[in-house]
Design brief:
Elements: E1 9-13, E2 34-35, E3 38-39, H1 40-50, E4 55-60, H2 65-70, H3 75-84, H4 87-97, E5 101-106, H5 113-118, H6 121-124, E6 129-132, E7 136-138, H7 144-155, E8 158-164, E9 174-180, E10 186-194, E11 205-213, H8 216-223, H9 234-242, E12 252-256, E13 261-263, H10 267-279, H11 285-306
Parallel strand pairs: 1-4, 1-6, 4-5, 8-12
Antiparallel strand pairs: 2-3, 6-11, 7-13, 8-11, 9-10, 10-12
Keywords: Nucleotidyltransferase, Transferase
Pfam families: NTP_transferase
GO biological process, one term: UDP-alpha-D-glucose metabolic process
Length: 307
């Protein structure tokens, strides 16, 4: 196999309307909703940087200016904090602007994840790149993206992150047919189906929001017709690449992920994520958990009394 180029760039699609969180997202991007005291999108960028990807392209849309502002310097705020001698908050404010080299491009119309990824073509060029979806947060203690980049270096082609779910959940995700490779956590993907009916799903392994893509995906996306929902699906393009020779950038592999994933794309999972992160914070955890236990006990007592 020819030398495989290293993965150095990350693409973060963030152009969605966030309708599940209205009215909170009427004027605030869903990616900026806080997980305790840090917006969800910052955790995603931190994950990319931890995997060695300091060049980050954000695919945004209208009303997403606050994302750019968050990763920019805030000189007046910094000066006010410096004048107060508040070094802790000053460091926290500077942290986001010092994380990575940030770039932005707008997705003019919401035509699906595949279209959003294609918007990165000019910036990415002929290099492999990672795609991180903002709705999916991977625990910082689980090096999923680093492992995916290793698999790309070993096999070439594109790599997706997989999780096993109950059969009745597969129709909410992209689902894959797989073959063993000899590595316990790596499979070769032979087919991909976007949100299949339960009885037509090729397996219980779903694609979660992490991808490492060969640049060949751009040519495929350009020719990919709109699929489910009238949108251009990244899953459809990867399906084509799964049947494409390795010499042409083809081949798709999956990393079986059994770690900690937080889905912030719906209200209930978002609330669970906030509670979990708060409970594990050194500065908040003990006091928060004491309150939470008392709250649950009082709630249970009230429920029992009323039944």
């Amino acid at each position: 196999m020819a030398d495989i180029e290293p993965v150095l760039k990350a693409v973060v699609p963030a152009a969605g309307l966030g309708t599940r969180f209205l009215p909170a997202t009427k004027a605030t991007p869903k990616e900026m909703l806080p997980i305790v005291d840090k917006p969800a999108i910052q955790y995603v960028v931190e994950e990319a940087v931890a995997a060695g990807l300091s060049d980050v392209l954000m695919i945004t849309g209208r009303s997403k200016r606050s994302i750019e502002d968050h990763f920019d310097r805030a000189y007046e705020l910094e000066e006010a904090l410096r004048a107060k001698g508040d070094e802790g908050r000053l460091a926290a404010v500077r942290e986001s602007s010092d994380l990575a080299i940030m770039h932005y491009v707008r997705q003019g119309e919401p035509r699906g994840l595949g279209h959003a990824v294609h918007c990165a073509r000019q910036h990415v060029g002929h290099e492999p790149f990672a795609v991180l979806l903002g709705d999916d947060m991977i625990d910082a203690r689980d090096n999923l993206l680093t492992r995916m980049i290793e698999v790309r270096q070993q096999h070439g082609g594109s790599v997706v992150a997989l999780m096993e779910v109950e059969p009745d959940q597969v129709s909410a995700y992209g689902c894959v047919a797989i073959e063993d490779t000899g590595d316990a956590d790596v499979v070769r993907i032979t087919d991909l189906v976007e949100k299949p009916p339960v009885d037509e799903a090729p397996s219980n392994w779903i694609i979660i929001g992490r991808y490492v893509c060969d640049p060949a995906v751009f040519d495929v996306l350009e020719k990919t017709a709109p699929g489910r929902g009238g949108e251009i699906q990244l899953t459809d393009a990867l399906r084509t690449l799964a049947d494409t020779p390795a010499s042409e950038g083809g081949g798709v592999y999956g990393v079986k992920f059994r770690g900690r994933r937080y889905d912030t794309g719906n209200k209930l999972e978002y609330l669970r994520t906030v509670v979990q992160f708060a409970s594990e914070r050194q500065d908040l955890g003990d006091e928060f958990m004491t309150w939470l236990r008392d709250f649950v006990a009082q709630h249970d007592k009230g429920t029992s009394a009323s039944s």
